[in-house]
Structure formats: C-alpha cells, structure tokens
Amino acid sequence: MRIIRFLSEGAVPTLAALTDGSKIYVLPQQDFMELVHHAEEQGTTTLALVEGMIATSNPLDRTIGDLSLLVPIVAPEVWAAGVTYEKSRDARNYEATGGKLDASTFYDKVYDAERPEIFFKSTAARTVGPDQDVYLRTDSNWQIPEPELGLVISKSGKIVGYTIGNDMSCRDIEGENPLYLPQAKMWKHSCSIGPAIRLADTVDDPYKFQITCRIYRNEEKIVEGTASTGQLKRKLDELVSYLTLNNEIFDGTVLLTGTCIVPSNEFTLLDGDRIEIEISDIGVLNNPVKLHANKIAVS
Ligand code: DO4
Ligand code: MG
C-alpha cells in the first residue's frame, strides 16, 4: 500500500491510497502525517486504517499516469546521510583528490567511523515533486543526481514510510573543499521527493529495495545504474538515531540515506536532460533538468 498526493479538479491537493493492484482511493485526510496520527489515535496501524477506509469506498476511474502528482509529503526539512555506500566513498575520494582513482581521504574515515555523515539537505520550498524541474546550479560544471531511499520520520523518530529522493549534487564544488558542502548540495529545486510513500507497515525488509537510475538526453538513455539497499554500510535505525540525538525534528521529516549509483566521472547533467529514479515497490520519480534561470558569472 502506497500513499500519493495529486491535484484533483479545482486544483485541490488530495491525499489518496494506491493499492498494490494499482487502484486509487481518495482519503479524507489532508496529508500523510495526519493519516499516521489518526491511526495511532485509533490504536491501529496506518495500513489497517487505510484498508478499513477503502473497503467502504469506490476507486477512482483513473490510473496513476492520468493524475497530476504532487510531492507525497510537504516535508518541512529534508536531511541526508552521506558516504553510506562504498561506491559513494570512492566517488568522493576521486573528487577530493582531483581525479585519483584509488585515493584515500577523510571520506574513508567517515565511511569507517562510528558516527555517520548527516547533513541538512532541503526545506519544503526548495523541494520538488514528480515531473517538476530540478535545477542545475550556474556555477558548477560537474552535476549529478543522487538516487536515494528516503525515510519518512515522525517527530518521535519512528520510520513511518519509505519514498524516493534525489540529492542533486555538484561534484566539483564539494571536491574543491569539503567546507563548500552546503553549496554543493543546497539550492532552489536541488531536491526531489516522490512519487509515493510506501507504508512502513508493508515493508518486511528495507534492505531489499532495488534502486535504478536512468538519465535521458533528447529522450535517448545515456546513463543507467542499479543498486540495492542491501549494499548499505549503515543500518537505517542507526542513521535515524544520529539525526534525532539531542535534536528536535519536525513531524514528517525526510532523511535520504545516501547514494550507491554514481554516473561515470566524465558525466555531467545538462539543461534538458531527464532523470528517472525507480525503487522497487515505491515507484518511479521522474524529473526534467533545467539550468537555473538566474545566472551568475562563472569562469
Ligand atoms: O559527503 C558528501 C555527501 C555524500 C552523499 O550525499 C552521498 O553519499 O549520498
Ligand atoms: Mg547523497
């Protein structure tokens, strides 16, 4: 069972359940966390609550492809974990050493350390949903998508759902100096979330998600990569416990769990590309790529 949001007639944001048989049922709640808390108040699981509601209603006569999907949760904050996969560690070492393939840097230390890397990625206003443009920075010549499993977390730190995230990143800015990380990671439309949230109650093993990333240029597929959350170095609960330690998080915070798919080192995204990120049992997050219109001089 998955939860989506879409624009219904009159451009009203509407919450809906998407069953594993692809049927869509409108739900009465305004947003995902309201649904989660309603289930808690009723002393039941979110899955049982949704199943009860849809048992007495009719599905829409539409498929998911007919809908104008919205970001499935307006997350006040999006955080991200880094260097949680070997592939990411190797890519960061390459960036930070000006292109040495077998280099070793402080990224090895974070990969092996007890404390994970956790950084602030985005706010609701900077985050886009399915089919919306993600933007390229105008001061970077080496930009990639980072396809990541996203955890939807309640304010008490419980993982209540799984979604797909794109942690758009500038490899040249980060590689130049690690203190530039916020600029390499955060700008307008540098984060995408969606298209659905899979209820945590319906996931037996979150280390079995298959992640695929495809990049299209003029509708020709130019990059494809796959990975599994089974390759994660860290446990998901471990990442959440560091995020929430001595911290206060907003209800419906999203935590991206790191990338294991990195395009070849020569690759950079260009204006007009299109990114698809698919995670098994969650869906396909599609975003066109646009150069930010507000140009600033870059040499
Ligand atoms: O240290 C850089 C960030 C790494 C990251 O975003 C990732 O591994 O996904
Ligand atoms: Mg990342």
Explain the overall architecture.
The protein has two domains: 2-66; 77-291, Fumarylacetoacetate hydrolase, domain 2 (Alpha-Beta Complex). Helix content is 19%, strand content 34%. The chain contains seven helices and 18 strands. The strands form three sheets. Strands 1, 2, 3, 4, 5, 6, 7, 10, 11, 13 and 16 form an eleven-stranded mixed sheet that branches. Bound molecules: 2,5-dioxopentanoic acid (DO4) and magnesium ion. Magnesium ion (MG) binds next to strand 5.
Question: What's the topology here?
Answer:
Layout: E1 2-8, E2 12-18, E3 24-26, H1 32-41, H2 46-55, E4 69-70, E5 77-82, H3 86-96, H4 106-112, E6 117-123, E7 127-128, E8 134-136, E9 143-144, E10 147-153, E11 159-167, E12 169-170, H5 171-176, H6 181-185, E13 191-199, E14 210-217, E15 220-228, H7 236-244, E16 253-256, E17 274-279, E18 283-291
Parallel strand pairs: 5-16, 7-13, 8-18
Antiparallel strand pairs: 1-2, 1-4, 1-13, 2-3, 5-6, 9-12, 10-11, 10-16, 11-13, 14-15, 14-17, 17-18
Helix pairs in contact: 1-2, 3-4
The chain binds 2,5-dioxopentanoic acid and magnesium ion.
